[in-house]
């Protein structure tokens, strides 16, 4: 079961132009104890995030992990905030999606802590239900 | 209101999954006698913990603005010329989905480009994870 800070890799993620590539997501909560897995999506496309610094960039709604900071990413990676995606455990464990998603790696404890602190800045955009799962687990 | 939900409640029959949670009351509007109106009353205190503060504020603002409005008045306000419903009807036809991007204006905090990218990515998530936005 996915753990906080782990990276989920979605194989053959289908994009708007129908191309298929890997897409990475960061797990936010402890799914052993909860019935949903909360994730943030990531992108390596910088167009929207020109000039952002390493780590938390609340005004740009992104947490930037440049290559070399974390071994889990092979490209400069932008963790997109604050949109939290809720995946039910059923979907992760059975069915079509379960065959496409696997845990590929993990953020370091320090980096994940910085990410969570960054997320705290988006008070207006995180529901109490999600906040409880992410910060009190 | 989603059309599917309206079709379920328009005769004031409470859908099975809402039994005991909401009450439906038929209403009439003297100014629009041909309109069907149904008032929805909560029978249970709703669990609002699924909403963000921003979403709650939007819901509160809408509830405040339309608190005393009849369905026909709401319909009139939301179907004004050159507004999203009217633009969609003229450009795509009746009952076609209204593009979220039509809500972006010059005063919006987000640029059209960023909004379009965000929306595209949102629908990619919906598609790949099999998420039903209205459930």
Q: How does this structure look, described?
A:
The complex is a heterodimer of chains A (137) and B (135). By secondary structure, chain A is α+β, with helices and mostly antiparallel strands. Chain A has a single domain, classed as SH3 type barrels (Roll). Chain A is built from three helices and eight strands, in the order βββββββαβαα. In chain A, strands 1, 2, 3, 4, 5, 6, 7 and 8 form an eight-stranded antiparallel β-sheet that branches. With 135 residues, chain B is mainly α. Chain B has a domain of 57 residues. Helices cover 41% and strands 9% of the residues of chain B. Chain B has a two-stranded antiparallel sheet. The radius of gyration of chain B is 17 Å and the shape is globular. Chain B starts with a helix and ends in a 6-residue tail after the last helix. The mean pLDDT of chain B is 91. Classes of the chains: A alpha+beta (137), B mainly alpha (135). At the A-B interface, strand 1 and helix 3 of A face helix 2 and helix 5 of B.
């Amino acid at each position: 079961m996915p753990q906080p800070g782990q990276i989920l890799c979605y194989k053959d993620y289908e994009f708007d132009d129908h191309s298929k590539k890997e897409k990475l997501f960061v797990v936010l909560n402890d799914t052993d104890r909860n019935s949903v897995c909360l994730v943030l999506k990531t992108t390596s496309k910088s167009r929207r995030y020109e000039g952002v610094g390493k780590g938390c960039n609340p005004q740009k709604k992104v947490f930037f992990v440049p290559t070399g900071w974390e071994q889990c990413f092979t490209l400069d990676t932008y963790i997109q905030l604050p949109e939290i995606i809720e995946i039910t455990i059923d979907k992760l464990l059975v069915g079509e999606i379960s065959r496409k998603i696997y845990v590929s790696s993990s953020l370091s404890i320090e980096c994940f802590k910085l990410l969570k602190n960054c997320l705290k800045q988006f008070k207006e955009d995180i529901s109490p239900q999600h906040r409880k799962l992410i910060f009190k687990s | 209101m989603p059309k599917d939900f309206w079709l379920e409640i328009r005769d004031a029959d409470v859908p099975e999954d809402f039994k005991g949670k909401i009450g439906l009351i038929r209403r009439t509007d003297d100014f629009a006698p041909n309109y069907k109106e149904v008032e929805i009353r909560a029978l249970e205190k709703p669990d609002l913990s699924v909403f963000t503060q921003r979403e709650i504020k939007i819901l509160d603002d809408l509830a405040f603005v339309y608190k005393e409005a009849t369905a026909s008045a709401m319909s009139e306000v939301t179907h004004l010329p050159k507004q999203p419903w009217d633009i969609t009807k003229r450009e795509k036809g009746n009952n076609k989905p209204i593009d979220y991007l039509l809500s972006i204006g010059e005063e919006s905090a987000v640029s059209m480009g960023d909004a379009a990218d965000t929306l595209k990515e949102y629908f990619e998530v919906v598609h790949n994870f099999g998420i039903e936005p209205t459930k």
